[in-house]
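Notes from the pairing session

We agreed to fold both candidates in a single pass and log them together. This is the raw record for the first candidate, unedited. Please don't reformat it; downstream parsing expects exactly this layout.

Candidate A
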Amino acid sequence: MDPDSQRIATIAERTLLAILVSFLLLNCACSLGSSSVAKSAPSAPTNPPAAPNVNSFSNLQQKQGWAGSALLPTAYNVCSTCSPSGPQATWSMTQQVSTPSLSGSSMQLDIGGQTAFSDILWNNHLIGDFSSQGIPDPNHSIVPTFHNFTYDVYFYSTNVSASQALEFDINQFVDGQSYIWGHECRIAGGNEWDIWDNQNNVWIPTGVACNPANNGWNHLTIQVQRTDQNQLLFQSIALNGQKSVLNHSESPTPSNWHGVTINYQQDGNRTQEPYSVWIDNLTFSYW
């Protein structure tokens, strides 16, 4: 968000679904005896725990529901008077791009403008309020069942060094609480991953390096969890095969929203140098 981690994420809305899985374990008692003692019938093998019933939205870069907004310094609230044509910040989205692409249909996202350190936030309400995927959850019975989330995406840029930062967020709004798992790859800002402190509205440096490749595809996988104690658990970040385990916990904040959403954000640098990022094979999993 902001050049020195003061940018406050006004992460727009929420929406997603996930299914709680039960683990079935069959235990059978067996008694063993010596050759002189009658033996019981062999016990049936114990079944392993059932695998989680993982739900996924795949190829989200091809789907509807993406909304772009400008965030201007120094407040970094959504600018209601800003236009994609500028002048403060400019932005655009193009879907079904064949080159560069891995799937044959990537999404191109552009940023520019005249106001230094301006950001462009892209948000998609997947489940719950304002669902773009047809899962509105009006009875609030679906969203509370989801505790685990994975954001898996490939991204490409021909000028990645022009980015102050790239941000990838998972958001859950449930039972009057807001859970924002914000992840920011600082590039011009220092090539390090930061995560979001929900209660204090600040970025926390993780010490994990973030050096995305230029003119090449980068593969990012983020894993998070809402714990049984209703804490945000930042579990791990994997970039281009290098996985870093965080296991860092934060506390949620109050919210009236309901749902699951994801964000992707491009931050402008000190000259608001224009640059583009292509997103492909975006899969969001929840359970």
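Candidate B (folded immediately after A)
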Amino acid sequence: MSINFKNAMRKILFTALMALLFYSCSKDNSVNSVNNPVNSDYIKLFSVDTTGVRYEVYSRTGSSFFVGYNEIGLKVFINDAEQKTGYVNFTPVMYHAVGPGHGTPVSPKFYYSDSTGLFTGYVSYIMLSDTTSRWFGDYGYNGGNFVRHKEFSVIPGTGNQMHFWLGEGSSLLYLLTVVAPKNASIGLNDYKCILHSTADQYIYNEVDSAKMFIKSWMPSHGHGSSSNVNPFSLGNGMYKGVANFTMAGQWYLYDSITVNGSFITPNPTFYFVFDVQ
């Protein structure tokens, strides 16, 4: 495959990723677990099943799957017996009527949490679903007990932001997703983001070796702010810093990123937009 063809396919998929449209939520066909309550922060979305195996899907982010970062949990039942050891795999894939399919960033494995009563992790959806672009999920427990190719929906999310770019001097596509703040306020705000790279747009790898340098800027007033704290790695691709928005209005937050001492972001770098109240 020629370099020009690869670049053309990247441009096609990148354009598709930005063309986010609404799709209605999938129908819930679940059975509630009365004897095994879930942490009240999580909302049950739906269940999927096959003979002898059932997965219940929960979200801490909202009542649906949203474009952007979603904190999710799963319950597993084998012959109606709830499982609480081992791990769960969740593999979401989007198929398009025209063009190649693709994956999305997701926890490599979901492990059981006693505090939530769920196998917990995250998924960062990069596109909405619609009638020509549809999300399907594969579910597995301890390397088996598969439930495959079950459709679900992803809808818009308020305050969710992400940015794709081709790494400087690299063939890797990078994705930075804002985790917080969703609703920025005047003063110091925790800034959390998660960084991934992908070579094939199916498997997204968490990037833990990056260094980030942020700058806040208020374009309408032509000034920035002090007391920002550059994000540091928390592991699993997650970074946390502090953004200082000193007054109400629209702010830009620039994020320049290096990996192994070299900048992977363009110059000038991209920014996220926050409407500060």
